[in-house]
Every structure is written in C-alpha cells, then in structure tokens.
UniProtKB/TrEMBL annotation:
GO terms for molecular function: hexosyltransferase activity. This is Glycosyltransferase family 1 protein. SUPFAM superfamilies: UDP-Glycosyltransferase/glycogen phosphorylase (SSF53756). The keyword Cytoplasm does not apply. Keywords: Transferase. CDD domains: GT4_PimA-like. Pfam families: Glycos_transf_1. Residues 162-320 form the Glycosyl transferase family domain. Gene3D superfamilies: Glycogen Phosphorylase B. It comes from the Bacteria.
Length: 341
C-alpha cells in the first residue's frame, strides 16, 4: 500500500511525534510512503532518514505534482494547513484524502475549511470529544475515533542518575507541555504554593518552553518546590525519575504526553476536559480533576503521595489501558479506512 502523509507544521510537537509514530509502524507493515513536510520541522529529517520519499514545502500552495500521488491509495492529512494541500492535490489527481483532527477546538466557520472536511474520504478524531466537534459542524458526517499511540523513549542510565542526584530524596512530579495559557501551568503552581510548607519533599518540575515561561518563572522564584528545566528531549529519563505526572490543561485533543507517562509507569492526575477522559478512568487508572481547580489538584496529589499502594494500582491499571492505544491497533484501523476508499 502506498500512502502520502502530509504534515506542514513548522515545529515538532505531539502531533508530529504521532505522525512519525504511524509512519514507522506503516513502514514495518511494508507500506511505501511519501511524506509532505515543512522544511523547518525536524519531522523532515526524521522521515528522510527512514527512507521515505520526502517533498519539503513551506506552504500548502506549493509542491503540487501529479507524480507525487499517482501511485497512492490515499493522502493522509495530519495538521490544519495540510488539509488545503490535500484538497488541491486531490483536485489535480483524483487521489482521495482522509483527515485526522488532533485538536479539541470547534471547527472554524470558514467555507473552505468546511468544504475540505466534506470532500474528505473519511474524517478521524483522536478522541470522542473531537469526533463530537466534527459532528457539530458536519451533522451528516460519521467520523471515526482513532486515538494516538504512546511513544516509547530510550532511557540513558547515566542521565537518569544525574537527574536523581539533582532531586535527591524528593518526590518528583512532572508536568510536560508547551508553557502556554491553555496548558494550565498556573493551576499547578497554585497547588505547589498550597503544598510547599506541609509537604516540602514534593518537587514540581516543569518540562517545556513557551511564551509564558519567563513570566511564570518570575512569579515562582520564591517557591523552592517549583523548577523549570525547559524542553527536554530525553523524556525516557524523566519518566524514569518521576514519581507522578500532572496535566492541568484547559482543553486537550487527547493528551499524547499522558499516554507516554502512563505507558512508562507513572500515576497521572489530569483535568477532566477534551479527550483526557478517553485515557483516564477516574479513580481506576488515574485521577481526574475539574478544570482550573488547584485545590482538587492539591488534594489528589496528597492522596497519591500518601498511598504508595494506590499509586501502584493506578500504574497497573494504566498499563492495561494502554493496550487499547497500541500503535499496531491504530495502524490497522487506518488501513481499513484506506482500503474502504
């Protein structure tokens, strides 16, 4: 099977990780893959190194050629602007396209965007929340729900030891995300304020960068239990060192970093929003809190901190839940959609 994947994001975040994850699995399944990427993204180099035929382009109007998709069964869209590239290419070549939507935002009221979804051979949401968003705008549609799959990262023992030495004897809670408004880092900071005196052994470590990082760092200089370390590439080491993960987003398509942490064996506390409840069954494999409620977060952290047995229970149940998100399962669901076209 020959598939053309399109992801024109300029960065390399969760969506690009998930695109790469699917590409690797499909190569293992014997697919031939063509990939349209943004030359600024690390995805370009990564898929090139895998032997895929890559066409870098910085805009959806560029790099259209009949030869690109003449042997393809489908074009697979992974990111917003990629939809328009696929629409144009499909008009040129009649190659059908499918759209994976990764964000929980309502579809914008734009004629061309709506037309792009209507003309897609299939639409997919990572979570039930995203599926509902698509149906809100396109009531006659029948979107599929296919989740992301957890990425497994390598672990470097020497780096693990270095991190452990930095937080010696601390109970380490990580939050890993872009430090932007909707990720809710200020909620975790308020919880840290509540816990600093009574639980000095608990250490919050924020992994990420973004436009709010400097502001939040300045506001937390007086907090000894909060540490910003910037964006980290060695996530396997951090998942190994951490004792718990929190994720306090105001909105979330699914939460790929939650999948990764849970798959790595961390108990997770996260907000009840977007696709997160697709991952966390409250009080069974993790804890869900209301959006913006730092007191609920504090209480949940204390409960898990004081109960190693409950943490073990959540870790075991979390790993069992991850079987539903295995890349072998999700890749097979995509293959069935490709064939249906």
């Amino acid at each position: 099977m020959h598939i053309c994947h399109v992801n024109l994001a300029s960065g390399f975040s969760g969506g690009e990780q998930q695109t790469l994850q699917l590409i690797k699995q499909q190569l293992a399944m014997g697919y031939t893959l063509t990939v349209i990427t943004n030359p600024k993204s690390a995805l370009t180099e990564k898929v090139s190194s895998l032997g895929c035929k890559v066409y870098p382009t910085s805009h959806f109007l560029f790099s259209h050629n009949r030869e690109i998709t003449q042997d393809c069964q489908a074009i697979h869209v992974h990111e917003g602007r990629s939809l328009y590239w696929a629409m144009i290419q499909s008009l040129l070549t009649k190659c059908p396209y499918i759209v994976t939507r990764r964000i929980d935002n309502p579809l914008r009221n734009r004629w061309l965007l709506k037309k792009g979804y209507e003309k897609a051979g299939a639409t997919i949401g990572l979570s039930q929340s995203i599926v509902n968003r698509i149906k809100d705008k396109l009531p006659a549609s029948t979107p599929y729900r296919i989740p992301s799959s957890p990425v497994t990262y390598p672990v470097n023992k020497s780096q693990v030891e270095e991190i452990k030495a930095q937080y010696q004897d601390k109970f380490v809670i990580i939050q890993a995300a872009n430090i932007v408004a909707y990720k809710g880092f200020e909620v975790t900071i308020e919880a840290a304020k509540c816990l600093q005196k009574q639980y000095p052994n608990i250490q919050f470590v924020f992994l990420g960068d973004g436009n709010l990082r400097e502001e939040l760092e300045n506001k937390t200089k007086h907090l000894s239990n909060v540490h910003f370390v910037g964006k980290q590439r060695n996530m396997g080491d951090w998942f190994t060192v951490a004792d718990m993960q929190v994720h306090t987003s105001y909105s979330e398509g699914l939460g790929s970093v939650i999948l990764e942490g849970m798959n790595a064996g961390l108990p997770v506390i996260a907000t009840k929003t977007g696709g997160i409840p697709d991952i966390i069954d409250d009080k069974k494999n993790g804890e869900l809190i209301e959006v913006g409620n730092h007191q609920q977060l504090s209480n949940a952290i204390i409960k898990l901190y004081e109960s190693p047995e409950l943490r073990k229970q959540y870790i075991t149940a979390g790993k069992e839940k991850m079987a539903n998100f295995a890349i072998s399962n999700t890749a097979q669901q995509y293959e069935e959609i490709y064939r249906s076209l």
